[in-house]
Amino acid sequence: PISGWHGDNMIEPTTNMGWYKGWKKETKSGEVTGKTLLDAIDAIEPPSRPTDKPLRLPLQDVYKIGGIGTVPVGRVETGTIKAGMVVVFAPANVTTEVKSVEMHHEQLEAGLPGDNVGFNVKNVSVKDIRRGNVCGDSKKDPPKEAASFKAQVIVMNHPGQIGNGYAPVLDFHTAHHACKFDTLLEKIDRRSGTSVADLP
Q1: pTM of the shown model
Q2: Measured between alpha carbons, how far is 123 from 95 in angstroms, rounded to an integer?
Q3: Domain 146-199's class?
Q4: Which residues of the chain have a pLDDT value below 70?
């Protein structure tokens, strides 16, 4: 129980709620207790960053900066990006070397998952790569173009029927792409997750 108006249990424990004994929470580092909102925020454990996975960096934009050259910008989803790495952009299939990595106008040794980075690349024109392309390490499981994939789709609200041949536009990360439902494999019950009908 907190009161933002009176400041009760926000930063310091209040004397107005003698009945409230505080909260307990089990974490990886052990049991944590507290009474205030600040204690609760301090008890949040940061998520583990997937640095061990292959590099995946969807491009948000590509800039041409005078005196520097082509600078793609995006958020590192998995893996790390470092200067000197040879990267490949999919599906454009352009391979190049990373000259430097920056975040908020400061040079970085490595861009980690969650970082919004800009990186300078050699001998690549702004026309060669664009928003929606995915950057990956050319030596460690580079990203590839897919002709088809299986997906589980949740239909929230749709006026018509959805069947084989339905052609929606997909938005994934920064890409925006038209696709086509080739075959509906099964219909799943939304509550239990069990299959209701095969090839509906």
Answers
A1: 0.70
A2: 10
A3: mainly beta
A4: none
